[in-house]
């Protein structure tokens, strides 16, 4: 009897050691995912900047009128080609954050990840090279998830660990886009994986640090770090009034932004015009803006940076530029071409902050040198209002600017904005896009989905007999993968390291994902 107990103990010690080695392998692989993502996403950023500089130099040189025609025709052909790519591979549309979340949840599968990665990379660069107001961060996130998918296949990673590599790649993509590894990890937890499993947090942070390091190596100069953030000398009640004003205005603006964007996003497919004509209309707007204010194109980031460093004092002109950028961003994003809405959202929030700050300067509440401080706070708050990722927004602005001065006010204004957006019933933008995606006819045709979870030592599932488990209705354990073998679940006692496959109704996966994963994880 004692010999049997000792043998069990020895087996348990050996199994625990084996699981730690498996975890170490996963963390090493996540570092490799971060390195690959950085080596792909950083050149993506570089090429976008290169094409922007080309357009900027072309329009600033004011060439003869006949040179505008061949460039226009080339860009029109580019947009038609990118539209064709999206029709062939629908998963590369838009920013890619909803698609990445769908893959992690089991709603979507990357059937041809390498081809789709190349198409997302090429399509995103070409779409933004024409001047459309799209962001680089969404495609970078999805590119990272493609890398995580490919590495998990090439490395024969267990099914329960694939989602960790997908999440790690997604976080690494954002880290490479902004050189902000901490914010990228928070985005995965808040908006993509939406579950703080320990392994997911660790793998995402490791991959993000490596990808962010690659991005910092390729882009040693961070333009956001040159923005001044001079805090106005206000009394306590003066700060309270300022923060309440910013939160209220940003919340209302966020509500309008979300309603307008989603409205155009949903009516765009119903417009009865050929795709090539839709691209013609869109390019015509981009061309006109490029001829007047080229910095507003390509997401508008360059215009935001120029205003944050040397703010213009003409309220009417800034307001008109903000409205023009907003309308152009909405139309660009509604097209479904590869490109995110993260940077256009930052730009809109920053310009709204500049308008508020200019009004406050006019009435003597703050001085001119405090305008950029207000802009940075509003950038963070507007992300909270639209995307509803408060931790990501606060940490991102602090990371990219290196200004701790905006950290405390961003927390206060972001918290107030989050509360006001709850009152205004603003649904998170990426969640709305995700819901639209999974309720499309393609997904409604699927009746059942399979979720893979890994049993961790000390979790609820650890040591339980499958036959005695009381899972949610219509959830069934169909397979247990242990020691490189598949086992029938009948009469099996679950052990740490088991990869458990749970089948459920397709419409229940969003409601049951977190409860089921929490049964297999510890905190």
UniProtKB/TrEMBL annotation:
Keywords: Chloride, Ion transport, Membrane, Transmembrane, Transmembrane helix, Transport. GO terms for molecular function: monoatomic cation transmembrane transporter activity; voltage-gated chloride channel activity. Pfam families: TrkA_C, Voltage_CLC. One of its GO terms (biological process) is potassium ion transport. Its main location: membrane. It is a multi-pass membrane protein. GO terms for cellular component: plasma membrane. The keyword Secreted does not apply. It is found in: Membrane. Residues 435-518 form the RCK C-terminal domain. The chain crosses the membrane at residues 21-45, 65-86, 201-220, 240-263, 275-294, 314-333, 345-365, 371-397, 404-421. This is Voltage-gated chloride channel. It comes from Bacteroides faecalis. The lineage of its organism: Bacteria, Pseudomonadati, Bacteroidota, Bacteroidia, Bacteroidales.
